Amino acid sequence: MVVGPRRDEIPRLAEQYFTERGVQVELVRLDGSVELAPLVGLAERIVDLVQSGETLRANGLVEVAEITRSTARLIVNRASMKTEHAAVNELVDEMKKALHAAPRGAQP
């Protein structure tokens, strides 16, 4: 299973966003806790994927713009759906249970 954001898309989306607004920026790729970059003087602003914004607020940051919305999808190829039907359905059921059990703020 492959999980995670398409990290190569974030710089492209950020560049497109700022270009459309006529803002010249230098994009620097950081991995890990990017919300620390403004705190240590590495950047004035950051572009990051956030779910609730709690980590941003905990570090004294404020969301000033939403560049785009994203969703998480579970994708299963047709062969696996046929050959591993029970296992796939079990995984889907477990994910649904986890979503329903999660605190309200943690859900997308």
What is the structure about, briefly put?
With 108 residues, the chain is mostly helical. It contains four helices and no strands. The chain has two domains: 9-58, D-Maltodextrin-Binding Protein, domain 2 (3-Layer(aba) Sandwich), CATH 3.40.190.10; 74-108.
Commentary on this structure:
This protein has 108 residues and is mainly alpha-helical. The chain has 2 domains: 9-58, D-Maltodextrin-Binding Protein, domain 2 (3-Layer(aba) Sandwich), CATH 3.40.190; 74-108. It has helices spanning 9-20, 54-58, 78-83, 85-101. The chain is elongated. The mean pLDDT is 84.
Q: Hey, roughly how much beta strand do the residues contain?
A: under 5%
Tally of discrete structural domains: 2
Annotation, overall tally of beta strands: 0
Low-confidence stretches: none
Largest sheet composition:
none
Any idea what the CATH architecture of the largest domain is? 3-Layer(aba) Sandwich
Helix content: 25-40%
| The CATH fourth-level homologous superfamily of the largest domain | Periplasmic binding protein-like II
